[in-house]
Q: What sequence folds into this?
């Protein structure tokens, strides 16, 4: 885990839970609503979460952000993303409440009693969240530490993975809330990529090549693209073949068939030739070893001397059905990451230290909650 550019800065290291990201809104009438990452109303999926937050939240109005995670009802251990996705349904809700029990891990508060907290430093937002939430087995504050030592962050990363978390997110203590962005202030580090880039990419599927040999009858690889919201265009980033399991390959053509189009999408920029083109609708999460310059891919090509930015040794992690194509990793985010990785020497993040949350006087550890339930 090499993140030298945040050395000596003060930051939070939070568990990254392998669940469904949610926002919970409480309005002036006391009504609770749960929204997905795509801003879909999914209140009906988690009636027990609503009940617990209604009991545990000490505020007239609020917007909370957290992760709904599936738990093993016997061991209370955390379960992976695929399990909690079984709750994504409109029928048999009571049955799946029993089959797939969940817990809510909160890590941010965006509005409190009508006050907008988006520009408030993260350390202050955490203080308010802890103050106004009563925790129990079903509603927790997400586990975190505060430190300025990357060695401690690395140790905490391994602890998080051992406890069933997906990895960690490193956040500047003074950072404002930025929906859907990581960049300088928020950095995600997941277990799949300890030997590669310290981040993953959510990208849109825009094309595919037919498979050969063992992959005949399916796709051998898929073309993925990053989004530029300013230009409302997609730019090809890499071609992914690794990580496509036999099970996924068997259903991939059927999954992507509704989005097939006769030619390259009008909003897509790429120099690649594909056997099949798709509307940018399905989103996948991918990992990789490094960022490089490519003659055929087009991310940030207007900012590069030659070619565009591409991902080396890409690997599929999972399909992200909870994200829309417009929420894909942006061209600017990739460009900023590329600049950081090629800049020498690395410089620390421009973060302003804030007083520790704890009253222990220690610089490293502040508040923690149990990793497992």
A:
């Amino acid at each position: 885990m090499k993140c030298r550019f945040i050395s000596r800065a003060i930051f939070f290291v939070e568990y990254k839970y392998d669940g469904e990201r949610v926002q919970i809104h409480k309005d002036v009438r006391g009504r609770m609503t749960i929204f997905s990452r795509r801003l879909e109303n999914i209140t009906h999926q988690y009636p027990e979460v609503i009940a617990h937050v209604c009991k545990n939240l000490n505020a007239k109005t609020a917007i909370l952000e957290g992760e709904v995670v599936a738990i093993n009802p016997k061991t209370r251990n955390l379960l992976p993303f695929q399990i909690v996705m079984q709750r994504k349904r409109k029928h048999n809700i009571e049955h799946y409440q029993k089959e797939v029990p969940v817990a809510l891990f909160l890590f941010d508060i965006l509005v409190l009693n009508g006050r907008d907290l988006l520009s408030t430093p993260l350390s202050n937002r955490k203080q308010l969240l802890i103050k106004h939430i009563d925790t129990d087995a079903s509603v927790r504050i997400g586990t975190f530490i505060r430190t300025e030592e990357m060695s401690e962050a690395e140790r905490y990363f391994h602890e998080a993975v051992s406890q069933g978390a997906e990895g960690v997110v490193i956040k500047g203590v003074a950072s404002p809330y930025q929906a859907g962005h990581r960049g300088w202030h928020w950095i995600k580090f997941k277990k799949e990529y300890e030997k590669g880039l310290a981040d993953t990419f959510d990208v849109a599927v825009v094309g595919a090549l037919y498979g050969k040999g063992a992959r005949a009858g399916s796709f051998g690889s898929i073309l993925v693209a990053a989004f530029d919201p300013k230009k409302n265009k997609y730019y090809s980033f890499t071609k992914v073949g690794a990580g496509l399991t036999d099970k996924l390959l068997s259903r991939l053509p059927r999954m992507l068939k509704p989005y097939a189009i006769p030619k390259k999408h009008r909003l897509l920029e790429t120099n690649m030739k594909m056997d099949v083109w798709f509307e940018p609708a399905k989103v996948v999460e991918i990992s990789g070893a490094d960022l490089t310059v490519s003659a055929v891919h087009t991310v940030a090509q207007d900012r590069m001397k030659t070619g565009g930015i591409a991902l080396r040794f890409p690997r599929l992690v999972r399909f992200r059905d909870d994200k829309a194509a417009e929420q894909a990793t942006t061209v600017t985010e990739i460009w900023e990451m590329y600049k950081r990785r090629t800049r020498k020497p690395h410089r620390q993040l421009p973060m302003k230290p804030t007083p520790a949350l704890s009253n222990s006087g220690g610089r490293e550890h502040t508040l923690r909650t149990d990793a497992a339930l």
